[in-house]
């Protein structure tokens, strides 16, 4: 407990030092194009999630730097705190947040598939799991415009996307090592098609 308290105090000191270098009403910096209404943010430094919008309230947990979070609403200029809904519910100081960057492997979307291509772009917010099941181990959340690479297998019609039907979903296997080099490894699965509610829609779009 003593060590956790010291770690918490040390983290607050780092945040305070970082925040002092930012204008009082500074907005979140590093704004990529078309991202102003995105709910995805990442932490610039290690920071606590607070139970209430105050640094004197209890800390739910401490997030490491570069952790992606999902906002409950888009903050306005001058907001010192913003409510988040993942990875935990609570409040975070806006000064320690930055916009999520899209994958560096930027490619152009196409309406039709590129034969043999593994590149795809996320269309709507989805969860990657270790197994093709809604009960599978959670890996991370992907947000619109993120570039990923699917795994292909050789079939009767040539190279096709590796997929699996389970729980009324068509799951697609993602190559995590190639999609997020240095961050994730191995493979993961994304529910690409909801066969019950939206059978004609896909969570992935083709790249060129």
Brief sketch in words of this structure:
This protein is mostly beta strands.
Highlighted features:
five-stranded antiparallel β-sheet, 38% strand, 208 residues, mainly beta
Describe the structure in your own words.
With 208 residues, the protein is mainly beta. 11% of the residues lie in helices and 38% in strands. Strands 6-5-4-1-7 form a five-stranded antiparallel beta sheet, with no helix packed on it. The chain has a five-stranded antiparallel beta sheet with strand order 11-10-17-16-15. Strands 8-18-9-12 form a four-stranded antiparallel beta sheet. Strand 5 and strand 6 form a beta hairpin. The longest helix has 19 residues, at 2-20. It starts with a helix and ends with a strand. Mean pLDDT is 75; it is low at 18-36 and 103-115.
Helix content: 10-25%
Number of extended strands: 18
Q: How would you write the strand order of the largest sheet?
A: 6-5-4-1-7
Helices, by number, come to: 2
- Biggest β-sheet: count, sense, barrel? 5 strands, antiparallel
List the helices and strands and how they pair.
Layout: H1 2-20, E1 40-43, E2 47-50, E3 59-63, E4 68-71, E5 81-86, E6 90-93, E7 97-99, E8 109-110, E9 119-122, E10 126-129, E11 138-142, E12 147-149, E13 152-155, E14 158-161, E15 163-166, E16 169-175, H2 176-179, E17 187-194, E18 204-207
Antiparallel strand pairs: 1-4, 1-7, 2-3, 4-5, 5-6, 8-18, 9-12, 9-18, 10-11, 10-17, 13-14, 15-16, 16-17
């Amino acid at each position: 407990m003593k060590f956790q308290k010291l770690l918490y105090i040390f983290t607050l000191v780092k945040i305070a030092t970082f925040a002092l270098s930012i204008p009082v009403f500074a907005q979140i910096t590093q704004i990529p194009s078309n991202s102003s209404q995105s709910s995805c943010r990442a932490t610039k430094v290690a920071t606590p999630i607070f139970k209430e919008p105050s640094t004197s309230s209890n800390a739910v947990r401490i997030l490491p730097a570069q952790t992606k979070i999902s906002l409950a609403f888009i903050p306005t200029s001058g907001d010192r705190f913003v409510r988040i809904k993942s990875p935990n519910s609570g409040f975070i100081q806006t000064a320690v947040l930055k916009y999520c960057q899209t994958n560096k492997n930027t490619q152009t979307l196409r309406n039709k598939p590129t034969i043999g291509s593994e590149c795809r772009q996320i269309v709507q917010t989805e969860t990657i799991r270790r197994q093709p099941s809604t009960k599978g181990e959670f890996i991370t959340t992907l947000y619109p415009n993120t570039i990923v690479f699917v795994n292909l297998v050789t079939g009767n019609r040539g190279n096709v996307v590796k997929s699996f039907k389970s729980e009324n979903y068509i799951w697609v296997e993602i190559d995590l090592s190639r999609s997020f080099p240095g961050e994730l490894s191995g493979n993961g699965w994304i529910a690409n098609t909801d066969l019950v509610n939206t059978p004609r829609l896909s969570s992935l779009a083709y790249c060129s």
